[in-house]
Amino acid sequence: LQKSTRANLLSYYFDGKQSRLDAVESAEREIALYLATDHSMTEDRGVKRLIHAFNEIEKKSARSREEFVRGVQTNNLPATHIAFEKLSIQSDRAEASLKDLAAHSLNKLDTVLSDTVHGQLSLLRLGLYGVGAAILIILITFFYLHRNVGGRLAGLVDGLENADPANGDLHVAQHIAGSADEIGALARAFNAMTDRLHASYCKMKSEIAERQRAEERLAGVIISAMDGIITVNARREIVLVNPAAERMFGYRADDLQGKALDILIPERFHAVHAGHVENFGRTGVTNRAMGRLGRIVACRADGSEFPIEASISQMGGSEERLYTVILRDITLRVAVEAEAKALTTALQRRVEERDHAIQELEAFSYSVSHDLRAPLRAIDGFSRLALEEHGDQSDPELQRYLRMCSENAKRMGQLIDDLLGLSKVGRQVLKSRVVDAVKQVHECLAQLESEREGRQIEITVGDLPSYEADPGLVQQVWMNLIGNALKYTTKVATAQIEIGSLLAQNDTVVYYVRDNGAGFDMRYADKLFQMFQRLHRAAEFPGTGVGLATVARIVRRHGGRVWAEGTPGAGATFYFTLREGEIYVPLQAS
Questions:
Q1: 3-state DSSP helix/strand/coil % of the chain, to nearest 5
Q2: Which DSSP helix (H) or strand (E) runs through 218?
Q3: Which one in 163, 270, 278, 389 has a CA-CA gap of 20 to 30 Å to 60?
């Protein structure tokens, strides 16, 4: 049969560009051509009927294969499965038809053998061989199609049936032998489709996981937030309440969800608040602070009202619009503001009282400077005149009294001058400029030269940074401190006075005046800078008790502070700083 030019088995091997249907039709033509040489077979009606039935089955198989291909291409799993079931049924029918054809041929052979002579045996054998060869060709073609094509299509169907789209199992690549034909192309398209679906599923799964993580983070923020957070829908129904809002209003979240927002608002504000929310929804603004026109009042579960601070934001489309309100209970703040307002009012009243007292002090100072000086000058003048004219003739006791009158009048005048100076310090406007500290200290020492005459005094002026301050007022500070150092060292054989500066831990320059004079008891250090407070008797060290009070006032006006350290009989050190407008320049040696 293989040597026959009309029936070449190699013609039934189909490459990638020949369809299986064409191969079957070609085999049918070869069989028909071959059987035409045996009239005894082709004229048999049974053979014709069986061959015709086989051809009809193959045509139906071709249509089922086309339906199967379309089902796979359109990803229609039910249609694909139905087409494959049809192919299986038609394959079974074709196999049965071939068996019937073989059986009919054998029966025909028996009939011929019984009716013919032995001389025709070889011819019958040839016919038998021809029919057997034709049947063999048909069987080879069918089983090739059934095992190769059907098996390959079954692999695709199994892949579709094994896929689990719900769990993302879409990667079911099928490796089809002979992939250069249409079924191979279909398998490749099927694999590409599953790859795309799998990649899309993985991307979607990753996005869902990321969204879930973001939602978990947002939920954590909402739950742990100290402020109350409430979300309502377009119908102003509460859909979310965080724990802080539960504590703020005294409700459980389950009791509030689905309820109207009005449950948290005093009844007298229901209509106004609804209008505000509706207007806000129409503006298109994403967020806005609430209560710009007045304080917002909320209502607790027990009916009590309390002030809140709120901001509102909106999200979503027109059908699913949501409003989120962030609330803060400002009851404590309102109370503090009320207290601060009361304190401010009291402070303003005290300031007014202070201003009134200052005005009275200025009036008193004016009276002292003008009304008391004239009597004091008269007392001093008449006392000195009496001593000059009648000193030799008068009683010594009288002379002592006259001298005491003159000295006390002078002391009273000095006290008046000190008081006037102190009052001016409080009223004087600061006129700051950069001052050379070393130069200013030497100017003060020159003015106090008379206090140093006839005494053994060692004065050391160290490095003093320049500063920005009112030069006239700071000079009074130096004059008072250096003058005190000279005064309280009069009983020391060799007075030692040191004027210098040091840098504190907070980078603040501290100026000081140190002496080895009388010193003082640290238990009374807080009284040094108070008005008319003196730690030594006037007979030992004269003074009015106003100088250090003046120093303290000047230093405080410059934003600094002043303090002192001392030991009785071992001297004292007075420190002060000038923080306001203070500048630091390279230290200058004396």
A1: 60, 15, 25
A2: helix 182-224
A3: 163
Q: Is the pTM of this model over 0.85?
A: no
Distance separating alpha carbons of residues 85 and 391, to the nearest angstrom = 155
Cβ-based neighbours of 62, under 8 Å, separated by 6 or more = 20, 21, 24
Q: Return the higher-pLDDT residue of 221 and 587.
A: 221
Distance CA 565, CA 571 (A): 9
- Range 488-491, long-range pairs (CB < 8 A, 24+ positions): 488/515, 488/517, 488/518, 488/519, 488/536, 488/541, 488/572, 489/457, 489/515, 489/516, 489/517, 489/518, 489/571, 490/455, 490/517, 490/541, 491/517, 491/518
Instruction: Please give the class, per CATH, of domain 429-576.
Output: alpha beta
- CA triple 312-315-319, angle to 5 deg: 120
CATH no., domain 338-427: 1.10.287
Residue 319 or residue 55, greater confidence: 55
Residue 45's Cβ-count burial label (10 Å; 0-12, 13-18, 19+) is exposed
- The H-or-E segment that residue 377 falls in is helix 373-390
Q: Give CA separation, 545 vs 425, 521, 551, 575, in Å.
A: 16, 17, 11, 18
For the CA atoms of the chain, what is the radius of gyration?
A: 60
Determine the Cα–Cα distance for residues 156 and 174; give it in Å rounded to an integer.
7
Question: What is the per-residue DSSP string for 354-371?
Answer: HHHHHHHHHHHHHHIIII
The mean pLDDT of the chain is 73
Phi, psi of 288 (to 5 degrees): -160, 145
- Report which secondary-structure segment, H or E, holds 288: strand 287-289
Residues 474/531, Cβ–Cβ less than 8 Å: no
Residues 264-294 as b/e (b if ≥16 CB within 10 A, e otherwise) read bbeeeeeeebeebbeebeeeeeeeeebeeee
Mode of pairing for the β-strands spanning 305-315 and 287-289: antiparallel
pLDDT tens-digit series, residues 105-164: 667 655 654 554 344 445 545 555 555 555 656 655 555 555 555 565 666 666 666 656
Tell me the HSE value of 36 on the side-chain side, using a 13 A CA sphere. Answer: 8
CATH class of the domain comprising 225-329 = alpha beta
SS3 306: strand
β-strand 287-289 against 296-299: which pairing, if any? unpaired
Q: Is the pLDDT of residue 501 over 70?
A: yes
Token digits of residue 32: 């028909």
DSSP string, 91-135: HHHHHHHHHHHHHHHHHHHHHHHHHS-GGGHHHHHHHHHHHHHHH
Kindly give the pairing relationship between strand 495-503 and strand 457-461: parallel
Is the pLDDT higher at 560 or at 318?
Answer: 560
- What average pLDDT does range 400-420 have in this prediction? 70
Residue type, 588: Q
Distances (CA, A) of 387 to 244, 376, 402, 414: 91, 17, 7, 22
On the question of a common fold for 338-427 and 429-576, the answer reads no
Q: Calculate mean pLDDT across residues 216-242.
A: 84
Express each pLDDT in 6-38 by its tens digit. 433 333 333 333 444 454 555 555 555 545 555
Q: How many angstroms separate the CA atoms of 150 and 134, rounded?
A: 22
Query: Which 8-state DSSP code applies to residue 286?
Result: S
Angle between helices 121-144 and 77-115 (to 10 degrees): 170
Domain spans, the chain? 9-162, 225-329, 338-427, 429-576
